[in-house]
Amino acid sequence: MLCALLFFSSFSLLRAAIPACNNGVTTFDPPLTVGMPSWYPSNYTNTKPPIFPGDFKCEYKINVPTGWFALIQMTVDMTYFQNVSAPVIVIDQLQNREEVYSAQQERFFFASNGGTIRLSTGMTEQLSFGFKITWLQYPAMSPNITRVNAGDRNPLVLKHLVNDAFQFVADYQVSATIMPLLNPLDRQYYRGIMFFDGPNGNVSCLGSGLSLLNSKAQYYSTGKSMTIMFLPGNPIRYFTSILLQDYINTKGIGTFQGITWSLQNPAHYASFLMDASISPVAIQTLNINSNSEVILSLTGTGSLDVYLGGATKNRSNLVTSYNAKNCDNYFPQLFLGDIKTYVLTSGVAILNISEKSYQDYSPSKAIGRKGFLVTENYGVLSPNQQISEGIYSPPNVSITVFKYSIQLADLVPGVTLKITNHTNGQETYHQYNSNNLPRLNVSNEIQGEKFFVRYFSNGKANKGFHLDFELIEASSSSIFSIIGVVVLLTFLLF
Questions:
Q1: Which CATH architecture does the domain made up of 362-494 adopt?
Q2: Which residues pair with residue 91 across a beta bridge?
Q3: Alpha carbon distance 444, 207 (integer Å)
């Protein structure tokens, strides 16, 4: 009996601490003392917040002056409820709405002129709710101004952990997309990345990193500059990757999806539904672990363009295109480079990709496989032009013809090319360099079980390498000839 009375007394005290919501609105203004937080309710200080009664409604309006932002750390704990709608709705300075069912000191950010928190407990009998507001000034602008050029093949990757503000300038307009979370727990920290339409934070806010991610769109400036801020009080645990290009290259793309391959991301495979029935859609991939990626399959309708780097208006880095209805023989296909962009220009398709190049690229499904090998900076003078890949015969096929044609091999002095085939444990190869150049655009055939292509720049700048290939069935006479050669070599050796 005594325990019950104590519980009822404590419960009543918690409810009694809840302030009245006059006219349904409570307003919060910055305090005179900079950095001094405000608590709601006043007796809530990061411990268990008070329990609100059922059918309690209030709108909390948080004002933010120019050049400042509000950091809100909110707790919502709902132990029993009948109301299916979210008890809390957070509305930011751009009227973006976020429903909150549960939060433990979770961070929300309002840029100027502020935002609103709406509480509606409905029939909930035990809803604990409270928040802390801290008003802070925007971080100082970095003195460096970074350019993104319309002719750049690769997007500029902004990776940052430090609270700072950066200005970017383009030839025409700045476009920004954001890569998905490496850890779902970092969702709240994306709210603390702010984008502004101009050279500082005193211009129109385009939105937060989380809003950008959820929209699957891009932010773009109306003029030539954009500012990106990483707000204080926002301890991002992993690098946030923002891709920046000139908007002239991405203007026609309606939605963006993506993945970052990294040690923090345990996934090695990804599947994307791409719906380009209204406008082109893009998949952006960023590889921190390595620079290789494999398309495993493409099904559906429409045309898929593959760019080494970002999508470009001049299509200078467009490496290939696929018709989703008729492309099965072209996979698996390897692509090299830290960034790849896949743009579906029409139709609806499903794209499956892998980070495990050696495991998923080398094996062949059947005779008739087609593909190519191309260096990551193909066509551009660069010392980073390497390939070392193997292509295997299909299962239950002993001997395959590797038919290939070299489109480009920029064998400046120091750069080497070696094409090797393996048959019954025997190895033969063709080796090329600046003194022994291969013939270009000429069909060649070698037979074997495994084929390896190795192109090394060895630190020498060159324009790269491109080889097209196809696996075709070996004739019976060719197989018997190979067996005869192996028998003869064995006889001579013994």
A1: Sandwich (2.60)
A2: 97, 116
A3: 55
| Helix H or strand E segment including 212 | helix 209-215
Q: What is the pLDDT of residue 122?
A: 82
Which one-letter amino acid corresponds to residue 313? K
| Angstrom distances, CA of residue 240 to CA of 73, 178, 227, 234, 420 | 21, 8, 16, 12, 42
For residue 16, what are its two tokens? 């009694």
199: Cβ contacts below 8 Å, ≥ 6 apart: 167, 225, 227
Closest CA to 245 of 172, 314, 176: 176
Q: Parallel, antiparallel, or unpaired for β 225-230 and 193-196?
A: antiparallel
Distance CA(217)–CA(16), nearest Å, equals: 46
| Domain 257-361 in CATH 3.90.180.10 | no
pTM attached to this predicted model: 0.90
Q: What amino acid occupies position 223?
A: G
Query: Taking 60 as the threshold, does the pLDDT of residue 5 lie above it?
Result: no
Helix (H) or strand (E) run with residue 249 in it: helix 247-250
Report the DSSP pairing between strands 269-275 and 348-354.
antiparallel
User: Per the CATH hierarchy, to which homologous superfamily does domain 141-251 belong?
Assistant: Spermadhesin, CUB domain (2.60.120.290)
What is the bridge-based pairing of β-strands 416-423 and 450-456? antiparallel
CA distance 407 to 444: 12
DSSP string, 89-131: EEE-TT--EEEES-EEEEEEEEEEEEEEEEEE-TT-SEEEEEE
pLDDT tens per residue, range 316-340: 999 999 999 999 999 999 999 999 9
Joined tokens for residue 484? 């005869």
Give the start-to-end residue ranges of the domains of the chain.
15-137, 141-251, 257-361, 362-494
- Residue 183: what pLDDT? 76
Q: What is the rounded distance in angstroms from the CA atom of residue 452 to the CA atom of residue 389? A: 6
188's enclosing H/E stretch is: helix 187-190
